[in-house]
Amino acid sequence: MTYELFYWPTIQGRGEFVRLAFEATATQYVDVAREPGPHGGVRAMQHLMQARATRRPPFAPPFLRDGDLLIGQTANILFYLGPRLGLVPTDEADRLWAHQLTLTTMDFLDEVHDTHHPIASSLYYEDQRPEAHRRAAAFRAERVPKFLEWFERVLAHNPAGPAHLVGDALSYPDLSLFQIVAGLRFALPRAAARLERDAPYCVAVHDAVAKLPSVAAYLASPRRIAFNNQGIFRHYRELDDPA
Amino acid sequence: MTYELFYWPTIQGRGEFVRLAFEATATQYVDVAREPGPHGGVRAMQHLMQARATRRPPFAPPFLRDGDLLIGQTANILFYLGPRLGLVPTDEADRLWAHQLTLTTMDFLDEVHDTHHPIASSLYYEDQRPEAHRRAAAFRAERVPKFLEWFERVLAHNPAGPAHLVGDALSYPDLSLFQIVAGLRFALPRAAARLERDAPYCVAVHDAVAKLPSVAAYLASPRRIAFNNQGIFRHYRELDDPA
Question: Least C-beta-crowded within 10 Å: which of A61, A155, A162, B122?
Fold first, then answer.
């Protein structure tokens, strides 16, 4: 059975963390809402979310269908896929640790979103610009350093060395860290350049992931949706460090 | 080995979701930061977070110690404890579903926090009041209904009946839903009274959990920290529905 990912078809967003897991391992999957025809598109995704017959309805995309199983929440999807795709060690302690790293990554992502939407997701950015300006300043000054310092520390303290977040091999938290670094570079290029100077291990993980043949091929393919200002990472110059 | 919970000693916050799991099952645990002496208090908690010897440092409290294992992130702790405390069915599909429910509960909790801290956690509420007023209005009008409708739908569609979120017995997501309803009643009593009219199943779960002998005894004990305005659920009249 082919894995089916359901996510918004025009943004990277949270779905990108799942796409990266599939792509890095050359796993076959269908990105359902990007498929044409009656079984594709956003309507197919929304139908599945809202249908009475859906026993375990997800609160929001992304969600994964694997046979009879429907699994929502990005971190939950990765927890499920990790061992199946060979993207996490087999012992419980490492699996919980990989999940913990991912949950913290998702918390960070929520904060990224709220830099441009600090008041309401239902409003346009343009309707909450003063608040966004204030929140983004605090985000750049306090939150990005706190998260990057933590990831840097995790890498520095990994008994197997700083090349990976978990153990001595690629795991899905490495892919997620790649996405965080790539997203920050798009959204806040000046702040990212400044803050990366104190996060060399994080940058090295980003670079190593980008160079994996499977990931490099994905990034160069039309399957990779470009960063854009409908996603979670958005570039508004006024939210970045001053020039 | 006794479970050790590490969390801020003067608030319910995210730690309360773990405390409820222990208390509902009459499981022995130590709430370390509330203990006196050199091995207790906030210092013991912060020492463990920051010590070089801590191989898997949590990003933030709460975290759990069970023997050699240190587990951070509320939802991850509950995922670990669920089967050990008999608070989740044994099959993988139900365990993932219980976790998904909890992850969505934690997302909701983040949004509760940001109603009074929409700009920065490092600032006082008083320094972000206009923004909080705006965010709380959107939260009451759009977000609370969306989350409660989803929980209501999950309960209505449970093949085993609407008394529980997962299967036909108490599980940790029921305890978390109790906490959400209790918290909303404290923080936004007028909005909660209005919105609960459309969420009778959620209210029934809250009431049933509150009446469990173990939970009732806990709620009446000094172990239960009262809601207060240092926690995640805070009561500011101006953030509630107009009188």
Answer: B122
Confidence at residue B200, expressed as pLDDT on a 0 to 100 scale: 98
Residue A227's nearest CA partner among A166, A186, A197, A194 is: A186
Report which DSSP code applies to A121.
T
Structure tokens of B243?
């009188």
Touching check for B120 and chain A: CB below 8 Å?
A: yes
Return the residue of A nearest to B73 by Cα: A100
Q: Which amino acid is at B193?
A: A
Q: Which residues in chain A have their CB less than 8 angstroms from residue B99's CB?
A: 73, 76, 79
Q: Hunting for tokens 């239960």 — which residue is that?
A: B224
pLDDT in tens, B3-44: 999 999 999 999 999 999 999 999 999 999 999 988 899 999
Those residues with Cβ within 8 angstroms of residue B52's Cβ, 6 or more apart along the chain or in another chain:
A157
Domain ranges, ordered by start, for chain B:
3-84, 92-231
Tokens in use for B80?
């670990």
| Structural fold of domain B92-231 | Glutathione S-transferase Yfyf (Class Pi); Chain A, domain 2 (1.20.1050)
What band does A1 get if pLDDT is binned at 50, 70 and 90? confident
**Is A62:A5 a contact under the CB 8 Å cutoff?**
yes
Class of domain A92-212: mainly alpha
| pLDDT tens profile A61-115 | 999 999 999 999 999 999 999 999 999 999 999 999 999 999 999 999 999 999 9
Mean pLDDT, chain B, integer: 97
**What gap in Å lies between CA A136 and CA B3, rounded to an integer?**
39
**Average pLDDT over chain A, rounded to whole?**
97
Please check whether residue B96 is in contact with residue B181, taking contact to mean a CB–CB distance below 8 angstroms: no
Test the A interface: residue of B50, B77, B100, B139 with most A CBs within 10 Å: B100
User: Residue A53 pLDDT more than 90?
Assistant: no
The tokens describing A27, both together, are 């796993």
Which of B80, B131, B153 is the closest to A96 by Cβ? B80
Indicate the DSSP class of residue B63: E
Which DSSP string do the residues of A171-196 spell out, in sequence order?
Answer: -HHHHHHHHHHHHHHHH-HHHHHHHH
CATH superfamily of B3-84: Glutaredoxin (3.40.30.10)
Report the predicted TM-score, pTM, of the whole model to 2 decimal places.
0.98
